[in-house]
Amino acid sequence: MLGTFLHAQPCVATDVVHFWEAYDKITATPDTVQQLALLQQYYLAKATPGLVALQEARNYTPTEYLHAINDYPEFWRSVRSNTTAVQASYPAIEAALDRLRQLYPALRPVPIYFAVGVFRTNGTATKDMVMIGSELALADDATVITELPAWRQPFFREYEPLKNIALLCTHEYVHTQQNELVENLLSMCLYEGIAEFVSCTATGMPSNSPAIAIGKARQEEVVRQFVKDLFLMSNNYDWMWGENRNALKTRDLGYYIGYEIAERHYQAAKDPQRAIRELIELDFHDEAAVERLVDGTRLLPAPLRKLNRAYEKQRPTVVSMDPFRNGAKGISPGRVQITLTFSEPLNGYNTGLDFGPLGEEHCPRISPNRTWSADNKNWTFEVDLEPKRRYQLLISNNFRLESGVRLKPYLIEFTTGS
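Predicted structure:
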């Protein structure tokens, strides 16, 4: 059974071979036009489905490849032997995936493609495959990183990539089994944190993400900040896939939130295999299922619904509009200045106007003239109104307080006279 499963999910590294063929030819000529043609001929034109998917997922361009090849010669020389010897890592990867299958017997086999990208992901996945960015994932402490941009260097020092290649492949493999992600902060945290916890449990290896240890050490502080940001929508990348721009000065703490929830769920379960199945098969579109999982772990200070109600009470509102009331009929056509008054001062920057339920046909033509009052409690905009029309305009939740708490949407609706 083991051999059959492993044969069904091969590791494929032909893109790595093709990359180095292209690299040797590119570095032998200074002609950039010829370099581009060589890259295309020897690497990109021979791409496996994995390389094609990797390029699409991270928007890699031929020009970026050439810049990286020409700008980082010491890096490429130092990482080359690790990438060409990737087959040496296959037994560890295969053993880790077999342990994952023992935890989750419904595991669906998919191929793992090793390719070379341009430093934007060490690994990613679709439902049908795992794609590994070998320039990141197969580096070790002998890899020369001094030529690389400063923002990229900490990854190599903090994550010990090659040492953790089996863990990375298992993490991405879990993603191939998960349901579609919903684009909100909690779902993003669960998606990544579940994959990290399950891969660590399967491999017996600790997470190599510093965020997990930091989150556990500073749990109260991390959870408090997470609750503040949970419903804001604008701070998601302070928690996921960011570069330390958050208040806690630590990237990817969302992995910790999801990991901690998954770990608590697993540890409390009477049937560990069922708990793993529930985690991997979580339907992110099923709000009740997400609530049951999160609330059941008691990581957050209150149930999700209670936290959401508390957030809703913080949201500012539109309290009035001039020169006519909302819902008015028979408004005179022509150019009109509309002034909104908010329940409290907003940040004076973010705004948002959108179509109402009746669509674009019922939206007035909006002038670019828009101004805030000195105290940011009022916002004025101009519209051109035609006679005998029914108009709608949505004041969206892109308006917000300085803290990021968003305005409750406000639908403006009125009709004009003749």
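Summary: The chain has a mean pLDDT of 95.
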